[in-house]
Sequence to fold (1161 residues):
Amino acid sequence: MTVDYLIDLIPFATDFPGLVFIAVIIACAVPIFMFIAVYALVAIYAELKVSSFMQDKVGPMGQGVGLHAGKWGLLQPVADALKLILKEDIIPSTADRKLFIMAPFIVFIGAFITMAALPFSPTIIVADMNIGIFYILAVSSLGIIGLILAGWSSNNKWSLYGAMRSAAQIVSYEIPAAMSIIGVIMLTSTLSMQGIIEHQSGFVWGILPNWIIFQNPFTFLSFFIFFMSGVAECNRTPFDIPEAESELVAGAFTEYSGMRYAFFFLSEYANMFVVSGVAVTAFLGGWQSPIPGLMDSSGWGLFWFMSKSLFLIFVMMWFRWTWPRLRVDQLMSVCWKGFIPIAFFNIFGIGLWKLIIG
Amino acid sequence: MTADQEKFIADVVEKALAGDMDAINSIEDRSVRAKAKASLVKAKRAAKAQQKSDAPAESDSPNQQETAETQSPLSILLNSTYPDEIIEVLDEGKTIQLHPKQWNEIATFLRDHPEALLDQMECLTGVDLGTEDALQVRYNLHSMKHRHKIEIRINTNRDKPEIPSVETIWRMTDWFEREAYDMYGIVFTNHRDLRRLLCPEDWEGWPLRKDYEEPETYHGIMVPKVKEGWE
Amino acid sequence: MGKCMRAYFRTIRESVSTLVTGMGITWRHMVNIRKGSVTLQYPEERWPRPERNIGFDQQDYNIIRSRLHVDINDCIGCLKCERACPVDCIKISTERVTKGEDIPEIKHTGVTSNETKKALLITRFDIDMTECCYCNLCTYPCPEECIFMTGGPNSEKHHIDYEFSQYDRNDMVYRFAKKVSDEQVAKATGINGEKA
Amino acid sequence: MKEIGSIRAEEMVLNIGPQHPSTHGVLRLKVKTDGEIVSEVIPIIGYLHRCFEKHAENITYEQVIPFTDRCDYIASMNNNFGFVVAMEELMDIKVPERVEYIRVIMAELNRIASHLLALGVYGLDIGAFTPFLHMFRDRERILDIFELTCGARLLYNYMWVGGVSHDLPRNFETICIDFLDYFEPNIPEFNQLLTTNKIFIERTADVGVMPAEVAISYGVSGPNLRGSGVKWDVRKDEPYSVYDKFDFEIPVGTGDHGTLGDCWDRYWVRMLEMQESCNIIRQALKAIPDNGDVHAMVPKKIRPPKGSIYRRTESPRGDLGYYIISDGSPTPFRLKMRSPALTSLSVLDEISAGWMISDVIAILGSLDIVLGEIDR
Fold:
């Protein structure tokens, strides 16, 4: 939508279509990149604080600016980012140099381009494609190539283990995630992100929002399957076996340092946002207000979308700081024996529900 | 106390021990006299302690005609089965010294015999007896069922120390024998994996032997003996 | 088959319930952070040191082991602490001074606070705190109670200080003996110029 | 067919350690793996070897005690305790009753502290971070008590031959009771957060099963042996000090969630033992004589009579034995420490073959090793 809007804005667009297209792409990419960077800082800070609070400590703190981390430690993520930027970039001498350098960018691109289809508000969306959700499911698994490249090119056994584990994991968990989304698509009859949100407008009995998660019991289950699969795709605890800091040191990222590591880090957080965004769009009514009449103008769309997404990100953090980690074979059996059968059952159930009840 | 004063006191004490108390009493300086008296008392006490500690050592001497009252059931059992293997029975039968030759067989017997059932090896200690020019291994055995224990001692000579391994009988001794090998150089024959345990594999010498001398260098690195600017 | 399915669903139920219970606990800790926080902002806030009173009959003192301190004025050079040290981090050298002159500025003669007559000039009393193992063994044999872990019975004499890191390793060698020149030593020992 | 048969997975040797987050110290594990499956684990130790036994032959008996602290730095009190019990038996010293109670209280407090660390770090090995810090929070309280009592937080040098270095502080009883009142309600919370967590059970139950015969043959002792269902506790079966005066249970593994002797059982035994230690401390605080000397009549310079002794005590990791040979001089002729963690580690290869890399970490964590004690 935004892309079309920008193209329309330029009067001589038809004269230089290629040039204008590239310019518009850059004009969209830069804000998204800025958004990811700022959001990552916030998320890192939130992760620090959430984990600390759950562990009975106050986390990064500081009285005054200077040597300390600012008021309530607000400067801590900035300091972390600065450290990552300034840190020496080490490439192991036996590593496959080209692939080693390429890998973090591929992972980041995978997370980055999914952002293009996320509807932040009725108007703020880079491109409201008619295959939006399908596009997100497709490109979000691009990161796996980067992870495998990283693991392979590092020439380190830990990295290889991490890469192989994450490949198995991400590929497996794509299936229940996609299955849950299929149920949503069956209800909404559209692949467009905005279309899915439009379908969820209104309220049942004037109180309960007409979100897909509340539309029938199967979609309720679907939401959890999708969300947990999403957590697994982000490699977060309890599914963080690729990184598994107590087993594999740091998994695929063992040999990375400085800015390259920061890119992995950034893409992990970006991925979390994408998963939450898709879950919000597909199940929780996107940018729509949960309470009838409360701040439901289109200007508030961004607020609702962000608060819902950030809440889901908080839940992910909550998981991480509460639960232990699964073993790789248990991870697979949870996926193949737990999530996938239930996801199939859900598709069936949603179809039946739609046929019988409406 | 200066050196000549010490020497003087030592002289006087010697005289006093020989019966000449006047040598001390005639010292003029009060403090020196007090010191001399104190060291005399010390010397007398030391002599007494020497006698005392010598006494049990004598009773430790081999005594094959030990009567049954001073023996534990385990030592009687062992005595009846392997009478030739026992060198001596000490400490009311709680400690038995054996010949190394059939140790493996005896160990199996001790573990499996229903009256012994010594299924737990508590500890395996290598000892350098120093003066007797022999190395010794002490096995502390314990039975989980009967709750009795026994200590086995096996001597071996310093030049070619060899003791049969019991690593397959009590699996715990696997590492403990490796440790004893590491520290004393006692070769446990038939041990399946006799490598050094704690020291690096290329370490030279047997560190816990009494005649061990610390190496000057290790891999070309000087071993610091004295801290710089300290002595 | 039915048994299998029941086990399958029981597993799912157990998983969900126990995982949610765990989340409840972390949530409780998160919302009660104001009450439950156990950390302090270290450079600004510090843990209170333990109460001073420990149940000795005669003395009330704490037994914090922070670092060794020597009241060199009370030291009689008996070397008991040097012998007690398991890691040899104390080094003492003394000179006999009964015959020689008094050097007033280092007060090497006279009596200690326990009224013991001092007979030795301590030319060196070094403690290498990098080697110290804080076992406290050197403080017990001292007849004058002049070597102590700061705190201890003489806590008024020296403040307790946990933070004594240094930039140079040599700064961690505490030299307690008073500076004396060779001539002073010679004078004090009464051996004129021979001993250096 | 022949070609298919000749395809074989290549064995990869993976070095876990010496610097690795979950080896609990400088331990190196040479792990032969086939994919994720581990076929052999070869522990390589000695990185922390500090020549304790050689060093002990050159220093006096009093000076050995600070070195025993440093062997098992997680449970220093228990190490001191083991040494002084052996020494007192060798020298035939009768220590005052108050000292015995002080020692028992200290040893049990340290047992709780040690188990808290073991359990928390075990959670960390499995991937749960929060229980670790919760347990550390409580462990700090115990260390505060130690600091109050003997001035040090980690390496105490508190128990001496024939006594303890200081008497208890004046209001020790209330401080201790306060701690127990605060701590005991936390145990169910740990259980809810970690022990009964389904993921935790999945990770630990049925993993690394150690049958009782294997455990006894390997000399495994303490909670690891009790996890295999053997009711053996030196405190109960060969009582030393005043342990025979207390009424406490010996928890043994039951195989609630899997097989008897699995990682979960070993974990659970430690959890139950903390509760029992609390009971012992409460009883000891009630029974402790109010006043009294804290030193027995011991000569300034300790010279045990000629002879040798092997005495074992129950440290949080198992049977901690000291073999002391004295030749009548003030320095030991030979001092051997039988460290429980060494035997626990030696069983690792036996019980972890066939499991996955993650399980090797879990099994290693459940054995609760301390490298300072293994390497001495």
Summary: Chain C has two domains: 2-36, 68-189. Chain C touches chain D at residues 11, 14-15, 18-19, 21-22, 25-26, 29, 38, 50-51, 53-56, 62-65, 84-86, 133-137, 140-141, 149, 151 (CB under 8 Å). The longest strand of chain C covers residues 120-128.
